[in-house]
Automatic annotation (TrEMBL):
<feature type="domain" description="CBS">
    <location>
        <begin position="73"/>
        <end position="131"/>
    </location>
</feature>
<keyword id="KW-0129">CBS domain</keyword>
<dbReference type="Pfam" id="PF00571">
    <property type="entry name" value="CBS"/>
</dbReference>
<feature type="domain" description="CBS">
    <location>
        <begin position="8"/>
        <end position="66"/>
    </location>
</feature>
<dbReference type="InterPro" id="IPR046342">
    <property type="entry name" value="CBS_dom_sf"/>
</dbReference>
<dbReference type="InterPro" id="IPR000644">
    <property type="entry name" value="CBS_dom"/>
</dbReference>
<dbReference type="InterPro" id="IPR051257">
    <property type="entry name" value="Diverse_CBS-Domain"/>
</dbReference>
<protein>
    <submittedName>
        <fullName>CBS domain-containing protein</fullName>
    </submittedName>
</protein>
Length: 139
């Protein structure tokens, strides 16, 4: 059985909820990633901030990224998967919530992220095509 831990990109890092978006963008650049899980003071996930969130919800809206915090843009219930979850569970979670990046948690700690790129390296072409259609379809 292939698990989330088998296909994830290891070494994901949190960003504190109170951190500003300009710092989030700098950390994304340093880590060469497009998304960061956002953690509260209790080290529990509060959501995910993406490079697109920063551009569309902050910069394009005329806000100053040095004054807007990550918690200002996180919304909804954070989604994640346990490291031992089967790949089918990973796909189900991503399909059901139409998400493209999924944090991987082990023993209540962030250990990695699964992105579309990770899926592309580990799924058959048919399974990948099915996933892409389900996440990107307008229905």
């Amino acid at each position: 059985m292939t698990t989330a831990k088998d296909i994830m990109h290891p070494g994901a890092r949190w960003i504190p909820a109170g951190e500003t978006l300009d710092r989030a963008a700098q950390l994304m650049r340093e880590l060469d990633v497009g998304a960061l899980p956002v953690a509260g003071d209790d080290d529990r996930m509060r959501g995910i901030i993406t490079d697109r969130d920063i551009v569309v919800k902050c910069v394009a809206a005329g806000k100053d990224p040095s004054k807007v915090t990550c918690s200002d843009l996180t919304e909804g219930t954070p989604r994640w998967v346990d490291a031992s979850a089967d790949v089918d569970e990973v796909l189900q979670e991503m399909r059901e919530h139409r998400i493209k990046r999924l944090p991987v948690i082990e023993n209540k700690r962030l250990i990695g992220m699964i992105s579309e790129s990770d899926l592309a390296h580990h799924l058959t072409d048919d399974k990948l095509a099915d996933f892409v259609e389900s996440v990107y379809s307008s229905a």
